[in-house]
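Z., the sequence and structure:
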Amino acid sequence: MNNLPHTEVLSGEGIETIHKASMRLLAKTGMLVLDFPRALETFRENGAKVEGDMVWIDEDTLMHFVSMAPSSFTLLARNPDNNLPVGGRNTFFSPAYGPPFVSDRDRGRRPGTIDDFRDLARLTYMISHLHHAGGVIVEPNDINVGERHLDMLMAHITLSDKSFMGSVTRPDNARDSVTMAEILLGRQAIRENPALLSIISISSPLRMDDRMLGALEVYAKANQAMILASFIIVGAMSPTTLAATIAQQNAESLFAIAYAQMLNPGTPCVQGPFLPTVDMKSGAPCFGTPESALALYACAQLARRYNLPFRSGGNYTASQIPDAQAGYESASSLWPTVQAGTNVVLHAAGWLEGGLTTGYEKLILDAETLGMMAKYVEGIGLTEEDFAWDAYGEAGHGGHFLGTAHTLRHYETAFYQHKVFNMDSFEKWEEEGSQDAYLRANGIWKQMLSDYEQPALDDTITEELTAFVAHRRAEISGHEPRSEWDTST
């Protein structure tokens, strides 16, 4: 729970100006909808203007559908203690999503494998400040691309008891994700509250294609939650000015949210973009920049205007290893994420090399900062106990408070307790091996994997999941279309 006031960078008038610019983009410029006639027909039937592959939608029609999206919802986990309230003043953290490479201090950077995915899933399960298991923590490149989503979903389901993300690479993969969630939690249960949170990326500028629209359709009809997000490198996929970029991402995400509501009114939707800036000298994305921070604050304000949960931010860096650059860039990304009141934080831990790599040590170091953020958003208590009146009488004038009863009551929870960062004297640090944070994090993740205990899962559920995965592998390897599967659990 984030108890702090939200940081806002635009006035109410400024937010309305950007809203109107977004409406103008959708009404006058329009969105390109590629290779998905059903979406074109749905928009036409619901009042939009459609010509060829172009869709134009007016403000009244758009906002009629956007208003159907719930302002908050609960995301189910197989352990009910890990259910997540999404929206309002709640914030949850999820690990890096989508990198094809993985790295650690011993083995360096390399293509990710299913063993890496499983180890990262175990670590995510064990890190209390990562509230959500994530999705593609790293791509398991040693598994055929057509079926690797099955292995990732099985890892999330069996190695962790937190909520997880569904696959979006193909509509069939989205259907597999829904079916496996139904086997795990029950068909009716996940229709009442979603089990899956999946990210539907818009092909900026102002375009959606059959792959994303197909996955969106599957999840909307199953009442599963989605992040409808623009993937914009500012200056390349949008104009260089922040006003235009913010208006564009807003238009794109609202367009997708409206489509979800046309398919199934009340579909849980999260608004929120990915907005690194571009290095004008090289074309590479840049992270932790002041422009990205300003855009994040403004986009969060817009989401609140529409009563939508908001996603953005994380521990972003372009650095190849968890060095000083990684620390500064990640901190410059995470602080505005929290201060803006972001509800869903993807890429909160493990992100390296502009999202190309998930780092084991970076995961651990980022988790340290997430713990500090969790303490920060508690704010300042103002109860009688917080004013510690009895401690003044016990310590006396010129005394110290270390041994007072008040301190003893609070010493375990008064301040954030670091798990990775070192606060010892130079002499003690040197005596214990002069380890930097990179090396300490390396030892921590190894010890965690050694200590890992798998959460129990009912044998009948495991058997049904295993049978479904085997059935789907056979279909995929034989290039057969996905068949129906009994999910009457």
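The first strand starts at residue 31 and ends at 33. DSSP finds 18 helices and 17 strands in the chain.

Let me know what you think.
H.
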